[in-house]
Amino acid sequence: MVFKRYISIFIAAVLSVLALWGQDGTTAYEFLGVSASSHVYALGGTNITVIDDDVNLIDQNPGLLGPEYEMQAGLNYMRYLGGSNFMGARFAAPAGERAAWAVGVQYFGYGSIDGYDEQGNATGASFSPSDIAFSGTFAHDITDRWRGGITLKFIHSSYEIYKALAICADLGVNYYDPDRDLSFSVVLKNLGGQVKRFNENYDRLPWDIQVGFGKSLGTTPLRLSVTAYNLNKWSLPYYSTDDGNASGELEEHDKFMGNLFRHLIFGLEYVPSEKFYIALGYNYKTRTDMSTYARNFLSGFSAGAGLKVKAMGFGVAFAQPHVGGTTFMFNLTASVSEMLR
């Protein structure tokens, strides 16, 4: 009880202090917010409380890593908007009875872009901008139900002749009560900065404070999760046209309830067994980021499913943020230790 009290005081203090640290939103490296897990993508794109046998989940919260990942490997692929393709790999293994480590790499490719000079004339050449993030994670059990972890990320960006390097860290804790299937997490993400700049301008990383809660609904196979993110900045206004047309005048929306729900992501899962799930997510910020003329009924919603067959796991997720873009994600996991038995 004393430990939990101190943890609660620490979390409250961190949130209170950091919430006062405003920022103007001019950050780069927004790709760091794209999940490597199809399970998470199906639940709205950000979720730090999912408890599942899937090594891809730890990119959301290093506090989810533990010794139960017995030499598990994971692969992920996402067909993102436009010609973008994201992919990565991760491997985790125990480090004793109460700790674990993992390494991973994520590649973000944005397709081929035609080159133009300062006057807008085509150069006749094209280039393929990309980002790549290497990560290392370590987590340790604090008590039987509390776990903490840290992920270090080294990010290299290449945009034609411009190169940049950044280093950042994610800090996360998770509380899990298996008897009530209750999961609670707090994560500080992307704490760091650029080591090498593209030019004379310094690009900030999109650091974030996230709090998440997940729990099964009574004795049913349903599990509800709520994730609060972007907690380092309250005001998240969005703009829409007053007549629903692209040529209409933009109107700013910055009211209390709108800001509140733009900080929240809701997820619902149907989990009849440990080997199968169906997930549905709703992200109000994604929906409102799309202007009225660019969204449809599916904007903000996402869905997916996962299946485990012996030592292998498969996951898929789908979302359509706006009428002109459909995203698809696929995950594969394999328990190497189980395959070697």
List the helices and strands and how they pair.
Blueprint: H1 2-19, H2 38-42, E1 72-79, E2 85-94, E3 99-109, E4 113-116, E5 122-127, E6 130-141, E7 146-159, E8 162-177, E9 182-196, E10 208-216, E11 222-228, E12 238-241, E13 250-253, H3 256-261, E14 264-273, E15 276-283, H4 284-289, E16 301-309, E17 312-322, E18 325-335, H5 336-339
Antiparallel strand pairs: 1-2, 1-18, 2-3, 3-6, 4-5, 6-7, 7-8, 8-9, 9-10, 10-11, 11-14, 12-13, 14-15, 15-16, 16-17, 17-18
Structure notes:
With 341 residues, the chain is mainly beta. The chain has one domain (24-112, 126-339): Porin (Beta Barrel). Helices cover 11% and strands 50% of the residues. It has helices at 2-19, 38-42, 256-261, 284-289, 336-339; strands at residues 72-79, 85-94, 99-109, 113-116, 122-127, 130-141, 146-159, 162-177, 182-196, 208-216, 222-228, 238-241, 250-253, 264-273, 276-283, 301-309, 312-322, 325-335. The strands form three sheets. A 14-stranded antiparallel β-barrel has the order 1-2-3-6-7-8-9-10-11-14-15-16-17-18. A hairpin with a 5-residue loop joins strand 1 (72-79) and strand 2 (85-94). The chain is globular and about 65 Å long. 32% of the residues are buried.
